Amino acid sequence: MKQPLTRGPVSTALLDLLGSASADDPRAGEELQEPVFSALADTPDIAFDDDLQLTLFCLYELHYSGIEGVDDAWEWAPGLIGARRRIEQTFEEKMRAAVELPQRPRTNSGDVAAALFKMTAPDGGGGISRFAAKQASAEQLQEFLTHKSIYQLREADPHTWAIPRLRGRAKAALVEIQADEYGGGRPDRVHAELFAQAMRGAGLNPEFGGYVDDVPAITLATANLMSMFGLNRRLRGAIVGHLSAYEMTSSQPSRMYANGLRRAGFGDDVAEYFDEHVEADAVHEQIAGRDMAGGLVEAEPGLLDDVLFGAAAALAIETWLGDHIMAAWKEGRSSLQPQSSFAV
Amino acid sequence: MQDENTVDAATPDTAVDPVEPDTVVDAAERETNGARRPDQSIVAYPDGPLLVRGDFEIVTPSGEPLPRNRKTVALCRCGASIIKPYCDGTHKLIGFRTDD
To answer: Domain A109-330 maps to which CATH number in 2.40.50.140, 1.20.910.10, 3.10.180.10, 3.50.50.60?
Structure first.
């Protein structure tokens, strides 16, 4: 992605470092420690901290597509990995403290799936998707697509990190879902490409990261949460729970977004991404709940709590983002960054 | 039953004497004709749709193929989907139960 604008001392220190120093120096990245420590000590809420969430987003980006003008060798610089772990630790603690887990189901696939469906049931289409279907203006829907672009232009990638960490039934289920996310061999059906098509159709920039400067910390946090779960093998239960929650809260809301986009005058090229998800995620949610999450818990019963945590964390952070957007819209404001160049 | 079949088919691989090719052919035949699972499967998910996997076609009553965008499909079982014959998740909203 293109280099983002900095948002405080930590992201400034990181981008300065990536632009000037050599990644091959064995002490590379150590300069980050001090600003990271003091920012973590001072932050009132890491999920809404612009500087720390942008820093984490950039650190993860080194593992995905890289940052323009930055040496790829930075990916494994020990100083950066150390900084990432410090930020992740606070972020994970925050999410664990914020969510309430349901009563533990028995560790068989049917009960695990039923527990996940129960957790996700209240999100069957409320809040922002209902507003989008009935009332949102074309500009608000563009704004919504802008928030979503931070993840959807690379949809499925964070969960793919988990594939080599699973085995047997859970792995087969994850791969079956991901193969469909990646178009089943058809490049034009890759979900991230369908989203890029929607962005183009809505007059927006379809490049990954094109709107990083425009979105608030909480939008970056939704993407960072899944990168954190996906990139840490220790958290493989959480990434499986996260994907399950996403799949289980997608079909009905996708239909509402498709309806809202057509109502506001957008074409089929914009709505198609959402049409696709009505059908796709009705398949995926079954495979995710019973075979992937349930299969994982049957194989590794000790991961049950992390599966539930991953799902609860996904629901919580999406609720915070939805609340942020709706609060702005109710006051007639943009939900994007105040200095956003995005004209809405 | 399934376990016994699996064991049956696998046994010759380890137990067969390599100088008796007939036995190997028998084992291969048995694997294709008997113990192997079919190429298509339909899984009835509790309180949800039927998931269909494998090599199959979905056609209209007059034989026209229906548009299909994915390998594994979920067929509506509750009757309330608006994209029938595919599932759209509506069964969750109407409290559809399969009592299994």
So the answer is: 1.20.910.10
**Phi, psi for B35 (deg, rounded to 5):** -75, -20
**Contact at CB, A110 and B46, closer than 8 angstroms:** yes
Mean pLDDT by 10 residues, chain A (344 residues): 96 94 83 96 98 98 96 94 97 98 97 97 73 96 98 98 98 98 95 98 96 98 98 98 96 96 98 96 97 98 98 96 95 90 53
Q: Does the distance separating the beta carbons of A280 and B88 come in below 8 Å?
A: no
Question: Could you tell me if B23 and B43 lie in one domain?
Answer: no
B49 contact A CB<8A = yes
The Cα–Cα gap between B44 and B50 comes to: 5
* Residues B45 and B64 placed together within one structural domain of the fold: yes
Its ipTM equals 0.88
Mutation for testing the A interface, residue in B42, B70, B73 having most A CBs under 10 Å: B70
Query: Given B47, B70, B88, which is nearest A251 (Cβ)?
Result: B88
Instruction: For residue A118, count other CB atoms closer than 10 A to its CB.
Output: 13
Strands B50-53 and B73-75, sheet pairing: antiparallel
The reply to whether B44 touches chain A by the CB within 8 Å rule is no
